[in-house]
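S.,

As promised, the zinc ion run. Input:
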Amino acid sequence: MMVNGIGEDGGNMARRGRPKSDNPRSFTVPEVRLTREEIRMFKLKAGFFGGSTAALIRRAVESFTPQLQENVCCGEAMEVVNTEESYPFSVGDENYMVTVKNIPVWRCRKCGEIEVDLMLLAAVEEVVTEEFEQMLLNRKNIPGETVLDFNELLHTGAPQTASV
Ligand SMILES: [Zn+2]
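Predicted complex:
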């Protein structure tokens, strides 16, 4: 995969609440259409954060512990197991591999069939590409192989990278 557009950021989007220097690369979540009842809930809950919808969203997403929804194979509920995926990148003549371990997937208890959540994998690939671009920006020497932990990527702290 060729990495293009290094250094691209939120561009000219308006930023509120945080000084630019505090968060040099910022992104905007997509606009969400809500029902009247949902916006009522949203406003009241944001009231607990000084009316800041941004603070509410940050807190809610950080607190949320995701898990795969139930899935069925052979007439029975599948179990969730962890797998890993590797993503190759090339920059000029250099090749790199970034592996994400502990990605949850379904496995059938009977036949062993593995079923992945394609949207989740697409999100992982997007995030890994972003992490790799960040490594390019921050470090002079990127190891040929890097391992990231899915569970760490779920939080806002910097993920530990292990080179192998
Ligand atoms: Zn099965």
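The two ends are 21 Å apart (CA to CA). The beta strands are 72-73, 76-77, 79-91, 94-107, 114-115, 145-149, 162-163.

- D.
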